[in-house]
Amino acid sequence: MVAALAAFSCSKKEAGYTIIVNTGNLQEIKSLILTNTRFNDPETPFSDTVAVVNNKAVFSGSIEDFEEFYLMGVIEGSVPKLITDIYLENANYTVNVKHNKDRYDADILSNGAVQTQIDSLKKLTKAVYANIDMDALMQEYSTADKAKQDSLGYILFQLSEKAEKIRDEFFENNPLSPVALIDAASDIRYMGLEPAREAVNKFAAVPEYASNKLLKKMQQELEKKEALAPGKQAPDFTLNNPEGNPVKFSDVYPKNKVTMIDFWASWCGPCRQFNPTLTKIYDKYKNKGFGIIGVSLDKDHDKWTKAIKADKLNWLHVSDLAYWDSQAGRLYNISSIPQSYFVDTEGNILLASPDEEQIESFLAEYLK
Description:
- The protein is 38% helix and 25% strand.
- By secondary structure, it is an alpha+beta fold.
- The strands form four sheets. Strands 13-12-11-14-15 form a five-stranded mixed sheet, covered by helices on one side. Strands 4-1-7-8 form a four-stranded mixed sheet. It has a four-stranded antiparallel sheet with strand order 3-2-5-6.
- The relative contact order is 0.09.
- The model has no long low-confidence stretch (mean pLDDT 90).
């Protein structure tokens, strides 16, 4: 087992946690909230509110395993503001709150193994940008001509590549660390089935993570992906076409040898960029039994229909105009677009979330 995980496992555990928050001269912060419910979806919601007295607030308690929490500031006359996230475990923390332009931030000192490792990685990646005034750079970019924008864009790309390389090296050297688990749990929705399965199996083999919430969420995400794997029955749905008439998916795929469900939206740049390619693919294979049902994650009917017309998408279109709450989007676990599924004449999934090259090669083989 890697050193980072061993250090985490063997480090001295506190009986509980204590978080001392110093608000300094920020008199507008009247109280503080420590919560794991920022996104309103945890299995076990928790929230603790403490008043700020003499520029200080103290949280204390205990926790079974490390988990991401959020420190929110209660400002008079405003909704609570996010100050910082904290990877909470049974350890001691000192949080020094600061205000930077239009947002709050904080410096965290802790003897917690997970927070220490998180902060170490952040420090390494932030060092890449240490001598760069990002605000000034972005301001220069916004007013520059195209040649200058290209030059500045290349500088930003190089910095990003350097920071990403540092992260890659860290995870290569610490593949089973708590930070690697946090990163994998964040990325698993965007992984293919096999990479997701490998990630879950890797962390599930570590006894220290047996009851960890992040691993459980990864396992749940894997179950969703496996339910949508090739060979599974495609979930059925009914959505309205642009004229307001309901269309049932299971009435569509029997009419084609292969049907593509194309998740897209008028506001999605990559979707619009891919549409010319998709129209060429459709024109090439439509007479061989290829059909498409476009499922839009739009909110605005006019923008949706204008995009269909502008991009010359001459196939079936449906939407409930519910944005990311799309009924079909939820059924197919859609977290990014464009994304697609291919089913046969009986609704069996043939291909899940392929890239552009896979689409062309799959159709060429399947419809030959």
